[in-house]
Each structure stands twice: as structure tokens, then as C-alpha cells.
Write the C-alpha cells for this entry.
Amino acid sequence: MKIILLIAHLIAIATLTGMSIANYINIRIAAGEKGDRRQSLSFLRYVLGRMADVVLLAVWITGIGLFFSLPPEEGPNSWFMVKLGFVLLLTICHGLARMTGGRMRRSADDLSLYSRMELFASGVWMSALAAIILAVLAFET
């Protein structure tokens, strides 16, 4: 069961990585667009964000399941604790990106939010990559 849970966990983190890369590309393209094209890209970011909410929930549920699958006498190793830090960073960056995305939809002409959104999307991307590597190290079988 632990291996299936680990596979689901790694797939969920990898999905978040891909979604954040897609979101980053979307932001870069949308910065140079106007009118309907910018609105369409904004809607796409919104949909990606909603899907990422579900995937992030899956990351947390599978991660908690993996934590409880550890032998009680061993407990979490140092790789797991560092991974937990990166997943927390990923969650914070995702939340800030979602809040910034909401502000971008309300004020469509404010171009200053694009650089902030790029930063948060990059934060999700980089922390997800680190979390994948650390998950493999933390839960080696």
C-alpha cells in the first residue's frame, strides 16, 4: 500500500510542477496581450488554479498517508522534514498566486501584478521539483 501511496504522491507533485510551468508560460504570454486574448488567458489561469487546488489537496492527503505509513519506531527522517518545508513553501506560493490571480482579474490593466504572479508561479514550480526529489529520498523502500 505504501508504494501505491508514494506513486500517487509523486504523480500529484509532478502534476503541480507541470501546471505551474503552464501557468508561468501563460503569464509571460498574457503580459503582452490586450482585450479578449488577455481575458481568455486570465480565465485559463483561473481554471488551472482551481485544478491545482484539488491536486494540492491530493499532495497533502497522500503525504499525510505516507507519514502515517512510516514505522513508529523510526519516525520521519531528516529528508522528510526538509520535504515538508518545501511542501509548505509550495502551498504558500500557490495561495499567494491564487490571491494575486484574483487581483489580476479585478484590475485587468494593472501590469505590475504580472511580475508578482511570475514569482509565485516560479515558487510553486521550484518547490514542487525539490519536493519530488526529497519525497524519493524520504520514502525510499
